């Protein structure tokens, strides 16, 4: 049984280690972020000194945006299946640009696709347009989170248009952002997936080849060859989420005209004072206010209410004004009891809002 290697989470180091495990000659590894806190989370979740479970090529650590980070075991077969299905959906292998860190699954899979395609990935660095201009592949692809897409649409739309396809993952892509990309003639493809599914496994609502989508109530279930093997040294948690070949996600969804529509997380519905509150609906309403630039709405444990609705808002609007605004369209009982005004929402390196950090700041 192999022990787990810890390697620097740089593009060159991860690319080299990936090439070895994909050809079957390398040993399993976990990439470390450069920042000490991130590296400490990986060391904790990956547990390099413990014997490694079978069927593992890479251990990636979940971002911990809403809880304790977990070590996700990805097999060589899962990595390959994801990369091949992505190329099949996009129209064939191509050259990839890497604008994100390779110690997250989205960045890692850009490098996996590059190895399998026999192409050299280009690292975006600090100049996205200059990096894109160095690409020579017949087909040109990249992947990024919605925050990056929004920024590049503002500053570098010509570079975005030069790609045959841009896969957008890591967080939900808003209808407004999709419309902006379409207006700029940018082929942005929203993808649904996570570390446990080997990156995106549903593109524009349609599962990749080999992937199946099911439901348990409105909980989204995923089945297919890209799934992870389990959580590092967490057999009970693995058994809870992997059942009969299906991965029980924490997301809620439905089929609309045959396409998967993700409608939120299971913990997006809280009970506050005996009333069920759908947090995404409150967040969507707040974002319609002309003085709200950005917002996220969370449920915070509360001794009196069970959970209280707290809105973290970027903008000038005050609490009473926002409560009234929410109550114009939604039940008054859904209006946030607390509004925390911020200069900007805190983001993790993965491009997701640091929900756990926000919760820790108000408890």
TrEMBL record:
Cite the Pfam families for this sequence: AMP-binding (PF00501), AMP-binding_C (PF13193)
Keyword Hydrolase among UniProt keywords: no
- What PROSITE patterns does the annotation carry? AMP_BINDING
Q: Where does the record place the AMP-dependent synthetase/ligase domain?
A: 44-207
Q: Spell out the InterPro entries in the cross-references.
A: AMP-bd_C (IPR025110), AMP-bd_C_sf (IPR045851), AMP-binding_CS (IPR020845), AMP-dep_synth/lig_dom (IPR000873), ANL_N_sf (IPR042099), ATP-dep_AMP-bd_enzyme (IPR050237)
Per UniProt, residues of the AMP-binding enzyme C-terminal domain are 285-352
Enumerate the UniProt keywords alphabetically.
Ligase
What GO annotations for molecular function exist for this entry? acid-thiol ligase activity
So which domain of life are we looking at? Answer: Bacteria
Q: PANTHER family, from UniProt?
A: LONG-CHAIN-FATTY-ACID--COA LIGASE (PTHR43767), NONRIBOSOMAL PEPTIDE SYNTHASE PES1 (EUROFUNG)-RELATED (PTHR43767:SF1)
Please report the name of this protein according to its UniProt entry.
O-succinylbenzoic acid--CoA ligase
Organism of provenance = Kribbella caucasensis
Lineage, highest ranks first: Bacteria, Bacillati, Actinomycetota, Actinomycetes, Propionibacteriales
């Amino acid at each position: 049984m192999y022990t787990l290697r810890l390697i620097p989470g740089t593009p060159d180091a991860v690319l080299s280690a990936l090439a070895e495990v994909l050809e079957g000659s390398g040993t399993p590894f976990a990439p470390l972020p450069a920042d000490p806190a991130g590296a400490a989370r990986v060391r904790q979740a990956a547990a390099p000194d413990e014997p490694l479970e079978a069927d593992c090529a890479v251990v990636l650590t979940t971002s911990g945006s809403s809880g304790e980070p977990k070590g996700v075991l990805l097999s060589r077969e899962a990595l390959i299946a994801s990369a091949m299905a992505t190329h099949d959906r996009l129209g064939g292998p191509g050259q990839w640009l890497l604008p994100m860190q390779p110690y997250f699954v989205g960045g890692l899979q850009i490098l996996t696709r590059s190895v399998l395609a026999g192409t050299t990935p280009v690292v975006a660095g600090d100049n996205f347009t200059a990096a894109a201009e160095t690409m020579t592949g017949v087909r040109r692809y990249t992947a990024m989170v919605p925050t990056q897409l929004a920024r590049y649409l503002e500053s570098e739309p010509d570079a975005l248009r030069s790609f045959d396809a841009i896969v957008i993952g890591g967080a939900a892509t808003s209808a407004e952002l999709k419309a902006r990309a379409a207006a700029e003639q940018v082929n942005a493809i929203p993808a649904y997936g996570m570390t446990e599914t080997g990156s995106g496994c549903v593109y524009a609502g349609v599962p990749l080849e080999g992937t199946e989508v099911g439901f348990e109530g409105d909980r989204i279930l995923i089945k297919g060859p890209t799934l992870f093997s389990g959580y590092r040294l967490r057999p009970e948690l693995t058994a809870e989420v992997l059942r009969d070949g299906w991965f029980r996600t924490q997301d809620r969804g439905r089929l609309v005209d045959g396409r998967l529509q993700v409608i939120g997380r299971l913990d997006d519905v809280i009970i506050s004072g005996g009333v069920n509150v759908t947090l995404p609906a409150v967040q969507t309403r707040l974002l319609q206010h002309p003085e709200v630039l950005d917002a996220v709405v969370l449920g915070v444990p509360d001794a009196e209410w069970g959970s209280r609705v707290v809105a973290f808002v970027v903008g000038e609007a005050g609490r009473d004004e926002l409560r009234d605004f929410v109550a114009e369209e939604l039940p008054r009982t859904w209006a946030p009891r607390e509004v925390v005004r911020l200069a900007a929402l805190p983001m993790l390196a993965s491009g997701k809002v640091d929900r756990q950090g926000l919760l820790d700041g108000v408890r």
